[in-house]
Automatic annotation (TrEMBL):
Gene3D superfamilies tied to this protein: YVTN repeat-like/Quinoprotein amine dehydrogenase
InterPro entries the UniProt entry points to: TIF2A, TIF_beta_prop-like, WD40/YVTN_repeat-like_dom_sf
Signal keyword on record: no
PANTHER family: EUKARYOTIC TRANSLATION INITIATION FACTOR 2A
Cellular component GO terms held in the UniProt record: cytosolic small ribosomal subunit
Translation initiation factor beta propellor-like domain mapped to chain residues: 273-316
Record region (Disordered): 192-238
Homology family: Belongs to the WD repeat EIF2A family.
Single biological process term from Gene Ontology: regulation of translation
Stated name of the protein: Eukaryotic translation initiation factor 2A
Bias kind Low complexity: ranges: 193-235
Annotated source species: Eimeria brunetti
Amino acid sequence: MQSEFIALTKDGLELHNASLDASGEFKVEKIRNIDGVEAAEWSPQGDLVALLRSDSRQKVDILNADTWEVLYSVEGPTTVSKFSFSPRGRYLLVCFRFEATQCPENLRLVEAATAKEITRLTQRGVSETSWPPLRWTGAESFMCRLVKGAVHIFSKDQLEGGSFNIHSPLLRIEAPRASAIFVSPEPVRREAAAAADATKDPTTSTSPSSSSPSSSSSSSSSSSSSSGSSSSSGSGSEGGGYCAVFSKETKGEPAVLEVYSLARGGAALAAKKVFFHAQEADCQWAYDGRALLVKTHTDASDLTYYGSSALYFLKYGSSAL
């Protein structure tokens, strides 16, 4: 049993191999050194490595993870701000520093395996909460993009069609106050369950029970505790994933988190939760997309360091799936 991992040091990149020998002893061995590497990321499939070097900060090198040979580079007129792979490693997103004259379309989307450019667009600001600005469901069936007043949804077929247009989404979710989106892994498909049902005695039948989304919260605040309400409506698509759209509290209106199930035929509202004292939010999905943790934060006085925070656990019943 062995596994390779990357360590970034002040000098650059180190590749290590961790393994168990025949006697069960754990060993770590350094097997490669690359000086001057500032940032690195494995592709999710483990076949590629993306590197940013200190002596060439205007490009990202893509290497074969077996040979560590450079396959190609994504280069721009300004320095690289961020880069990342899509969930299954099919795409690579590279953001260069925005400059109106020198680099107006500073965000590039390329096919990771072929270096083919899919699109480029303008991304004026990049932060930890807004990166990546293009977000995929876990199986890459859909790609979501937050724009002013809406969320644009693109299908896998659009991206692979050869004439992709970032301004022509498959679906559009109207969200006038949206400030963040959080895209889920895709729910486990139910072929196995369907096969199991097919083997049952046809003379007997069962009626599945439905349950509404449930939520619980715990909060700590420097002033008052947070509260909220939740609801669900209808059933979403099977296997398409979800997009959670957060609209922050503003002008006396409470914050809202709306969860949409995604399918080629449309985006259906699967659940909705209202929050008070929530100007920011961060969501962490369960591995199968059936539940999520929502952390909210606000500092109404703008005088305290901690402000008011709350943590919510949201889980969807069968009626929301």
